[in-house]
């Protein structure tokens, strides 16, 4: 008998509230006959604070539009103004295919919906072998990073069955690593010719002074996040002769043990410390460069510290990567973003990737990234424990845990559906 698909549906304005909805009328699926089409089913997915960001700021960045409510959605949830589906990174299984280069049984790594319902998409081949783009009309306005998928062979099935750690890293950390790789290799490039602006404003300039972090003290908020740990790794291991002076993790008390245990930071301080004491404690001179990178630390700490650091240090830069977890209204989320924007330069992985590809060419960009990702995966994150869930009920528990603030950074939440 055909599996009854189950999807997560969120209330867009109250996205901590989820509904796990079975869709018995979606099956059996009709034959897939349209050309250039794939039928995809999410097979391996992760949950991190990033997934909650997609729900919190989905109204602004088009994230609710990537995986719309399917036609089989029951009437009680079938109002796209009120309900929507959020997104995750991971692997989808190709259930059916009319694309010669992507056979049935292969897998795609990329941006996926939460649930076991198959989705049919039309695709075209990318310029790089092994990469394809989803081309459906409803995906045309979506940032390019979400439409690009990486093809993996059917043999990946063995690793999925074994619940291999490497596969979990691909689901949980790969996109976080790329974000931080872009920051280190292009935004703060050692070679000034390869420098790119990190944000979404196409007209903004990135000065050589901003791009130069040689000798800087770099302070991380939410230093236990996967993105932060990837950036710390990159700063330590991939800067050649342009080293920073110190890499500092500013953590909440609850994440402290994990952050210290990662051995990724030269110093670990607490976000509860007063901003005034932080720089003197770290022995940062008035003329030294200070870079504060916020990966989604406790609400308000970044802005408070930035105001203080700016007052005492001319050579100060704040980078906004993530935001805190809260079930804020659209109005409040916008307010928080605007407030942050006045002190931080918000980065965007999609825009950074596009500019980096323009600098070095698409093929070289992905070849270099793949090599760097392999090196990072070999070392891994010290203390990160991969926790596998097996079904949508487990996903539900993971989402609740994240929203209640009970997900600890040492737990890598990954699911085989
Ligand atoms: N701009 C971009 O293009 C881009 C790209 C990728 C990721 N991001 C963002 O980067 C951030 C980090 O992503 P990630 O997946 O690496 O994060 P993660 O591993 O889930 O982050 C865990 C850290 O987040 C902090 N945190 C705050 N509230 C939390 C909660 N309710 N539950 C769990 N942790 C909480 C904790 O730090 P403390 O305890 O120290 O506060 C914790 O150590 C996210 O906001 C994501 O959206 C942005």
**What is the mean predicted local confidence, pLDDT?**
95
DSSP, total strands: 17
Q: Structural class, from helix and strand content?
A: alpha/beta
The main sheet orders its strands as: 3-5-6-9-8-7
What is the chains' assembly state?
single chain
- Mind telling me the C-alpha Rg? 21 Å
Pfam families: DUF2855
Write a structural description.
InterPro entries: DUF2855. Pfam families: DUF2855. The chain is of the alpha/beta class and 417 residues long. It has 2 domains: 6-173 and 381-416, Alpha-Beta Complex (Quinone Oxidoreductase, Chain A, domain 1); 175-355, 3-Layer(aba) Sandwich (Rossmann fold), CATH 3.40.50. It is built from 15 helices and 17 strands. The protein has a 6-stranded antiparallel beta barrel. The chain has a 6-stranded parallel sheet with strand order 12-11-10-13-14-15, with helices on both faces. Strand 16 (385-389), helix 15 and strand 17 (411-416) form a beta-alpha-beta unit. Helix 6 crosses helix 8 (226-237). The radius of gyration is 21 Å and the shape is globular.
Features:
six-stranded parallel β-sheet; 17 strands; Rossmann fold; 34% helix; alpha/beta; six-stranded antiparallel β-barrel; 417 residues; binds NADP nicotinamide-adenine-dinucleotide phosphate; Quinone Oxidoreductase, Chain A, domain 1; globular
